[in-house]
């Protein structure tokens, strides 16, 4: 099942520390056999594209920032209940910790 991603957000948001801003992929509108799905039966995709990343978590021993391993533009997989949904203008995005990301899709 291929998924589509909407346009980039027009709002400037900078996540803090180890947080990332993710645009969830759009849910499929029909099945592989051609049956169209109503909005209520669509599963929310567990994939998306990273829009922005924070500056990293603070290492309390050295006082330095630990850089994140993901970067804007990465396609990622996350768990069903990961992150907090936010609506900025008409854009629906997720803010989550880097630890909630399960994998980066190459």
What descriptors fit this protein?
106 residues; 10 Kd Chaperonin, Protein Cpn10, Chain O; 6-stranded antiparallel β-sheet; 0% helix; single chain; mainly beta; two-stranded antiparallel ribbon; disordered N terminus
Description of the structure:
This protein has a six-stranded antiparallel β-sheet, with no helix packed on it. Strands 3-4 form a two-stranded antiparallel ribbon. β3 (57-58) and β4 (65-66) form a beta hairpin. The protein has a domain at 19-27 and 43-105: GroES chaperonin (10 Kd Chaperonin, Protein Cpn10, Chain O), CATH 2.30.33.40. The chain is built from no helices and eight strands. The protein is elongated. By secondary structure, it is an all-beta fold. The protein has strands at residues 19-24, 47-53, 57-58, 65-66, 75-78, 84-88, 91-97, 101-105.
């Amino acid at each position: 099942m291929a998924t589509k991603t909407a346009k980039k957000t027009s709002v400037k948001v900078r996540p803090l520390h180890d947080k990332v801003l993710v645009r969830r992929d759009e849910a499929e509108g029909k099945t592989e056999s051609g049956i169209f799905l109503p909005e209520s039966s669509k599963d929310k995709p567990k994939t998306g594209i990273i829009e922005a990343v924070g500056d990293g978590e603070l290492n309390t021993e050295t006082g330095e920032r630990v850089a994140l391993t993901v970067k804007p533009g990465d396609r990622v997989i996350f768990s069903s209940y990961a992150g907090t949904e936010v609506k900025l203008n008409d854009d629906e995005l997720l803010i989550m910790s880097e630890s909630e990301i399960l994998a980066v899709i190459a």
